[in-house]
Design brief:
Strand order of the largest sheet: 3-10-13-12-11-14
Largest sheet: 6 strands, antiparallel, barrel
CATH superfamily of the domain at 75-85 and 255-309 and 321-367: Efflux pump adaptor protein, beta barrel domain
Structural class: alpha+beta
Number of helices: 5
Order of helices and strands: HEEHEEEEHHEEEEEEEEH
Distance between the termini: 124 Å
Strand content: 15-25%
Oligomer: single chain
Helix content: 40-55%
């Protein structure tokens, strides 16, 4: 082997050795940088799992205790709905509808005109009643004049009587003349009493005519059907030209201001409920809004007693069912236009049974 070949083989062996040393150093650094298997932040998976489980148990226990304390101090039910007044709009007189000024679901205020009934027939009755009253007053005027005339005749008859009586006592006149003046005096008194009686009759008649006129005027005012309170028009069943009769329902007026909640609590949870206790109101229509309320009253009977066909246990088909008692809860907050409370909405109620009505102020508020 030549000297050059020896040098080249030595160079190749040195290169291989250096490359091997470089690979060994790279593998060593990789082993050092790679974390050990089965550990997180120096802790084993089992230790981390136990820590997480402990945290979950602590949080769950905390909220569990809070819920337990809450339900120990509160009575809740979801068998509740918003309630209020639905006033029927009725007609008091018969007639044809001249105009209808509102539509379904329209908001109206108190005193607003809703329906106008044709006033032709009733207006004629008013004119006739007014004419009859004027005639009665004219007759009364004539009767009063007759009373004055009868008084004059009576005064004359009394004067003649006293004059003839004196002459008759002195023997200066005859019996026939004395009898005539007596008759004239009696006739004058009878005439005066008659015209006075007629005046009394006419006064009573005038009173009746006035009442009749006021009655016809009242009927005329009934042709203007106005809203008795503010609210929303519902179930409108009237149109122009329709003939309506007294007592016929025309539409309904739903009061959306005076609204409360009727909650049906189980009889087993009714013991701790008192008038004046505070309540939290959750309406399904506004799940993120909580309303404040107060227990206003508790019904005197269960809801089953007010049903159309109340149960009769004497029939023998007896199954014990937990009864529910209606409780009226009023809102203590002013109505918010952003959250209109309509009647019939589903509600969840929670009453704080530890807060009782102990002050006179609370009792007075509960009676309202």
């Amino acid at each position: 082997m030549s000297k050059e070949e020896k040098n080249s083989s030595n160079e190749e062996s040195s290169e291989n050795t250096s490359q091997k040393n470089a690979n060994d150093s790279t593998n060593t650094s990789r082993k050092k940088s790679k974390p050990s298997k089965g550990k997180i932040l120096g802790l084993s998976y089992k230790s981390v799992g136990l820590v997480c489980l402990a945290i979950v148990l602590i949080i769950g226990g905390y909220y569990g205790i809070k819920e337990y304390e809450y339900y120990q101090n509160h009575v809740t039910t979801n068998d509740a709905k918003t309630d209020g007044h639905i006033n029927p709009v009725l007609s008091r007189v018969a007639g044809y509808v001249d105009s209808v000024y509102v539509d379904d679901n329209e908001r109206v205020h108190k005193g607003q005109m809703l329906v106008q009934i044709d006033t032709t027939d009733i207006g004629l009755q008013v004119q006739m009643a007014r004419s009859a009253l004027q005639d009665a007053k004219a007759s009364l005027g004539v009767s009063k004049a007759n009373v004055e005339s009868a008084k004059v005749q009576l005064n004359k008859a009394q004067t003649d009587y006293h004059r003839v009586h004196n002459l008759y006592e002195g023997g200066a006149t005859t019996q026939a003349k004395y009898d005539d003046v007596q008759t004239e005096l009696a006739s004058a008194k009878a005439s005066l009493n008659q015209v006075k009686s007629h005046v009394k009759v006419l006064k009573k008649k005038i009173k009746q005519k006035k009442e009749a006129l006021e009655n016809e005027k009242l009927k005329l005012s009934y042709t203007h059907i106005r809203a008795r309170s503010g609210g929303i028009i519902s179930k409108k069943d009237i149109r122009e030209g329709q003939y309506i009769t007294p007592g016929q329902p025309l539409m309904s007026l739903t009061d959306d201001q005076d609204v409360w909640v009727t909650a049906n609590f189980k009889e087993t949870g009714l013991y701790d409920i008192r008038v004046g206790q505070k309540a939290k109101i959750s309406i399904d229509a506004y799940p993120h809004k909580k309303f404040k309320g107060r227990v206003a009253s508790i019904a005197g009977a269960t809801g089953a007693k007010f049903s159309l066909l109340p149960s009769d246990n004497a029939t023998g088909n007896y199954v014990k069912v937990v009864q529910r008692v209606p409780v009226k809860i009023i809102f203590t907050q002013k109505p918010n236009p952003k959250y209109p409370i309509r009647q019939g909405l589903n509600v969840e109620i929670s009453i704080n049974i530890n807060q009782k009505d102990t002050t006179k102020k609370a009792r007075a508020q509960a009676r309202r």
